[in-house]
Amino acid sequence: MADEVILLDYWPSMFGMRTKIALAEKGVKYEYKETDPWVKTPLLIEMNPIHKKIPVLIHNGKPICESLIQLEYIDEVWSDAYTILPSDPFQKSQARFWADFIDKKFYDPSWKVWATMGEELVAAKKELLEHFKTLETELGDKPYYGGEVFGYVDIALMGYYSWFKAMEKFGEFSIETEFPKLTTWTKRCLERESVVKALADSDRIIEYVHVMRKKFGAE
Amino acid sequence: MATEDVKLIGSWASVYVMRARIALHLKSISYEFLQETYGSKSELLLKSNPVHKKMPVLIHADKPVCESNIIVHYIDEAWNSSGPSILPSHPYDRAIARFWAAYIDDQWFISVRSILTAQGDEEKKAAIAQVEERTKLLEKAFNDCSQGKPFFNGDHIGYLDIALGSFLGWWRVVELDANHKFLDETKTPSLVKWAERFCDDPAVKPIMPEITKLAEFARKLFPKPQA
Questions:
Q1: Which stretches make up the GST C-terminal domain (chain A) (predicted)?
Q2: Contact A179, A132 (CB under 8 A)
Q3: In chain B, which end has fewer C-beta atoms inside a 10 angstrom radius, N or C?
Q4: Cβ separation of A69 and B95 shorter than 8 Å?
Q5: Tell me, what CATH number does B198's domain have?
Q6: pLDDT digits 0-9 by tens, B76-133
Q7: Is B147 strand, coil or helix?
Q8: Higher pLDDT, B225 or B12
Q9: Residue among A59, A76, A89 minimizing CB distance to B74
Q10: If DSSP states are collapsed to H, E and C, what string results for A146-199?
């Protein structure tokens, strides 16, 4: 019986982009269903009753929620192709640590930098730059976060790439100037078809951000 | 079996440290428990976890692993041939266990903690209501995951049991503070029985802190405003 794979996702979601990259890297065929998370459709509520958020990966009718959990699931199920996570337990723990850092620390200032004003914006910008610096230092001179091979942390962070231009515009900084190693790394990742096809256009994201800023009262 | 160089930086009171200790006990791994002094952070902690500067940190052959759920995964994988498996074997069951473990940390615990930090009765009532609602979800999750067996993981304790069970001491302290039972035979019958079994497990019993000692520590961590 052929696998049935469906992805409920919303075009600007950095989390959905991760899952799309992973599915493409593994050569998994799937049906993409554009799902606006602000509109709680019956399918979204049925598949993610706890959070009612996207992305939701549905494999043979069974939902898997949370993008990093989806990445591990995809790696474990489609295990004969290239691997997303390293096989060595220690290397794996380091990959998980950095992906966790991205979601726990980097995520909040990454949206506050375009959604807030005044003191909150100043604090968000400072924090965002600190976390970019940490990520730049961790990458160092390696081609990818895991070393020679494109993997879990690269996917976790490249999911945010479409939003970098918006962060730069509203945070008033340049990633290329401040973080040269990250810049080289992004260019390397952008050579991958899986990444290019998964990402949203950065200018379209900026248009979307303007709409969201109006909603949050930031403009 | 060769002696391994395993150290754990932590504290007797920490839920997150407990997770690592339970996992180590399940795998029968000897380790040196390096307890931090409340109010300060050791050089070793700051050096081993420069990003978050928090415990627990597992140091295995001089290599540090941070974040409790990541440590539990690491212990399961590095010592995969000793003791029972901590993560379920099927990828879908693993995804479900990881989902609920993340829910416990990101949603459920935040509301439990807000009971202890609540200022005034209204805030406390709202926090209690939220914990009630979220605990009901965990009761259902238990029934779905356990499929009639004694633990979330089935016949023996595993990742999700550890993720939630490590909170049981603090849960009891919060119940005493709020004067409200969240684990209750009528509202959460499955979780009540599971909690007893979990605390009785040989990997858990020796390290579950005493409630009175924990309550005293809680008063230090969350002082009540002066009248």
A1: 88-209
A2: yes
A3: C
A4: yes
A5: 1.20.1050.10
A6: 999 999 999 999 999 999 999 999 999 999 999 999 989 888 889 999 999 999 999 9
A7: coil
A8: B12
A9: A89
A10: CECCCCHHHHHHHCCHHHHHHHHHHHCCCHHHHCHHHHHHHHHHCCCHHHHHHC
Domain end position, chosen among B40, B56, B79: B79
* Domain assignment of residue B227, yes or no: no
* Closest-approach residue (CA) in chain B for A49: B137
B21 within a domain of the structure (yes/no): yes
Decide if the complex's ipTM is over 0.85: yes
- Considering the domain architecture, whether residues B135 and B184 belong to the same structural domain is answered as yes
* Contacts with B66 from chain A: Cβ below 8 Å: 97
Q: What is the pLDDT of residue A115?
A: 93
Q: Which residue of A has its CA nearest to B102?
A: A66
- pLDDT tens figures, B157-216: 999 999 999 999 999 998 988 889 999 999 999 999 999 999 999 999 999 999 999 999
A50 and chain B in contact, CB less than 8 A: yes
B99 vs A59, A66, A76: nearest CB: A66
Distance from the Cα of B77 to chain A's closest Cα (Å) equals 6
How far apart CA B46 and CA B123 sit, in angstroms, is: 35
| pTM to 2 decimal places | 0.96
CATH number at residue B42: 3.40.30.10
| Local structure of residue A145 (DSSP, 8 states) | T
Chain A residue at shortest CA distance from B72: A93
Task: Give the total number of structural domains in chain B.
Answer: 2
Residue B208, pLDDT score = 94
- For residue B121, tell me if it sits in a domain: yes
Give yes or no: residues B96 and B203 share one domain: yes
